[in-house]
Task: structure prediction
Amino acid sequence: MKLSICTDVFGRIPFTEMLDKVVAYGLDAVELTAGGWGGCNFIPSAEALINDDTKCAAFLAEIEKRGLKISALNCSGNPLIDTEMGRTHSKTMRDTIVLAGKMGVDTVVTMSGLPAGAPGDKTPNWFVSTISWPEYNGFNYMAEGVKYQWKVAAEWWKETCKIAKENGVKRIAIEEFPGALVHNVRTFRKLCEVVGEDADVLGLNLDPSHLMIQGAEPIAAARALGDKIFYVHGKDARPEQYNVDIDGLLENLPVECSRERTWNYVAVGCGRDLK
Result:
């Protein structure tokens, strides 16, 4: 196993200083954000590096001369919503894939995105309630919303998987993020199903914390996924049982309300032990 670090945690220090810190920590690689919601502190513009061979070569040389590698480029965002943000994320996510191919990086970490609940809507809608009801005059808005969302996802991801293959990117590792269309094993498999023949480039970025706070068991999920685990984020979460007993696991309070929340992200080992 090789250990990498997502470089956004270093803030906006100089690029070479960040790399020296990574070496000092004894790590093997860096995961660099280049699009989506990422800080993009060290790759402010994937497009700029794509279009400047000299700049791109110099960037890679700084990494290589320290004995480091790029484990992945990260472009987690929401490309499936028809807003300015969604269109920006769509472009930067696809630019990141092209840049990964140019750099010889075979893994891109991202999220599936989340569409609105119906054509014309502008707000992402995460349907996680039982959709067998309510129905009115033969119309079930939740069931129809879910159907529409997978149609949107299929169109965008089919094209994106083709872009990955054209650029030599072998693995798109999707983080199963709560609030995204792909948020667990079942929804990941659904994405592969709707994408079809080009879905072989799709795998999961297994983030244990996201599964824990949905009540899933990361080890069981890993066993079910097998060789579809393309990447892993070392993260932890802790259900706050004194609140879970009252309100369950579903949570939308801001993260700073840690005392009131039913779960919190925590340092690795503070939610789960060495297991």
Q: What stands out?
A: The CA atoms of residues 16 and 62 lie 7 Å apart. The chain is about 40% helix and 15% strand.
